[in-house]
Description:
This protein is an alpha/beta fold. The protein has two domains: about 20-120 and about 250-305, Periplasmic binding protein-like II (D-Maltodextrin-Binding Protein, domain 2); about 120-250 and about 310-335, Periplasmic binding protein-like II (D-Maltodextrin-Binding Protein, domain 2), CATH 3.40.190. The chain is about 40% helix and about 20% strand. It has twelve helices and ten strands. Strands 1, 2, 3, 4, 5, 6, 7, 8, 9 and 10 form a ten-stranded mixed beta sheet that branches. Strand 1, helix 2 (about 35-45) and strand 2 form a beta-alpha-beta unit. The longest helix has 19 residues, at about 1-20. The chain is globular and about 60 Å long. It starts with a helix and ends with a helix. Residues about 1-20 have low confidence and may be disordered.
Amino acid sequence: MKFRLACLAAVLSALSLSASAAELRVITHDSFDLPKPLLADFERQSGVTLTLIKAGDGGAMLNKLILTRANPVADVVYGLDNSLAARAVATGVLDQMPAKLAQQPAKAQLPAGLVSVDYGYVTLVYDKDWFAKHRLALPKSLDALTQPAYRNLLVVENAATSSTGQAFLFSTIAAMGEARAFDFWARLRQNGVKVTTGWSEAYNTAFSHNGGDRPIVLSYATDPAAEVFFSKTKLTVSPVGTLPLPGAVYRQVEGVGLIKGGHERAAALQFIAFLRSRPVQQALQTSMWMYPVMAGTPAAPVFAFAAEPDAHQTPSAATISAKGAEWIKRWTRVVLK
């Protein structure tokens, strides 16, 4: 009898522990990539089990959240950025954020409902060796890219299928205004711009530094640092550089938010604090190649090769929400059809 009671007590104890262990469902874009030891430390210290749900790019992730509002697939979302934030708020997929977590640095602001975690810059990147070999001067403006000297030299991502391509479109409009920007895009098409579906095809296949035939690619300001970091030989100079021309720099701010109707709110708040902790803010620099938002975070040494642009041309989240879809449709007609 005592043995049976002891066994029953053990079973009840195990069930109690299992029931008390929180499973936190985190939906992210496909680029989420923090070191596994850091995630394991969070689970151990918080008593929370993480379930990561990768849902494509940011736009696809938001669409999934909208379609599952009645029965949310996750409790917390990471990776909605300033081009998607206003739509996320307007569609009601986000829950209210506690005031103590809502404070955000001036350079990385997001609408209420999201808390910024990191930021970066979409810009043009060039192959230094190609330009040196061909003795061609770097373009000094976006308009120069429509001139014969730069015919067939540029590859960009599709604004309708890539967040990177969308960012470039928005930055050209912010700098030039709609009429001039779409005239620029029409002339760019006539000058042989190549359009790819996404970033990987543009950078890893079409870019001349990686074996393609296009020495200018739409990519990120941290690329020079990443090239040094991943080089098999020690480099003192990056083989690629940035072209932060007016109209070609978009500041992307990524954030985290509570999903309305999600479970495990306490665990979700712990995870949000975790993403803004110093270990994560340091790690994301060389795992997701973004800049940290928290003041005082030491810069990764290799970020000496990733200087921030002096200026950027980024429409407000409200403007993007109001006009972004229309701009993308117009871009598609001008550049692809």
